[in-house]
Amino acid sequence: MKSITAVVKQHAKSLIARRSLMLGISATAALALMPLSLPVVAQQSEAEPIAVGGLHSFELRVSDVERSLEFYQGLFGAPVLNRLTDTVSLQIGDGPQYFTLAPVRRGEQPHIRHFALSVPGFSLFGLQRDLAEHGMTRTVETLFDGRSPLELANLTWTERLPDDSQDMTTENHHLYFADRDGIRVQLSSPDACGSGEGPQATCNLEPAPEEGLIELREINHFTTYVSNYQLTNEFYRNLFGLENQAFQGTFPLLGLSDGRQFLMFVGGTQPGEPAQPGRIDHASLNIENFSEESVLERLTEYGLTARPEGEEARPLQHWVSRRMPERGGAPGGTPEVYFSDPDGIHIQLQHHTYCGGGGVFGEEC
């Protein structure tokens, strides 16, 4: 009978043969990085959570970057933080939070591509090791290789910046992983502003051409549809040491940072591996001077129209969802205001105390 060591080494070699993307990694190194069974699983379950500081940024893949830039700057008065070839990053509030506008790639539709979390004491190579200890398979760059979201599930990788020069070091690359549903998550240093992570990264602030109608405060949350919300919440609790901040019906809100920010994963309880990739449904931003009436007035003034009752949202519409007590809202319903941008991407706007809980402003968590 073969020894356990021989069996594990043989299994590792077969995985390497199937995954040509694991370039330059020996069988021994791959054994430490791949989510194998037997002793490796027991070791991964004891991995220390990665300490994160809070929500940091997100990326919108849009059909026309210049059109989206004009739309978001006119609405929010957000200054440009960086321009890298065909991408533009816009500051949220006083920073360092931001969001990036990037053109859709071949075969894509406009969507929220990823969200990012800040990591105090950011170390790209240290985080790659930490992710491997949590069962993530480390790979080479996968930016333009055409992989589907589920093919990226449980992988971690780095991506070059759009205008990376030959002398740009690996330390400056962006670091990503994809969860079990293929949702991309970026890990960033707290002061990153869209131009990388290393000492060569700089911010190039350009004031907005006009003040804007709505003043942003911070990123509040992301709501993501997944195949099994229980397994996904367990994954993020284990990976980052997160705890429930509140509940909306049966769905927990995983709290981050200042007690207002959170991650929300909703969906079914499908057993086994996901059959369909997950989807980031919307990003939520906390704003100044919030009331349901005033926000709708400003959105209407900006040219958006009310979504007809019972219809799917089309681009450049606004609507209100009232979260009732059975979903953790106020007795009369906690108003949640949404709009769709020129590509139909959904953005939520809330009072700066909103934490996803009860109360008129959703501030009771």
UniProtKB/TrEMBL annotation:
State the coiled-coil residue ranges: none
Quote the protein name from its UniProt record: VOC domain-containing protein
The organism named in the record is marine sediment metagenome
| PROSITE patterns documented for this protein | VOC
| Organism placement in taxonomy | unclassified sequences, metagenomes, ecological metagenomes
- SUPFAM superfamilies named among the record's database cross-references: Glyoxalase/Bleomycin resistance protein/Dihydroxybiphenyl dioxygenase (SSF54593)
The record's listing under InterPro entries reads:
Glyas_Bleomycin-R_OHBP_Dase, Glyas_Fos-R_dOase_dom, GlyoxalaseI/FosfomycinResist, VOC_core
The UniProt record lists the VOC domain at 54-190, 218-352
Spell out where the chain crosses the membrane: none
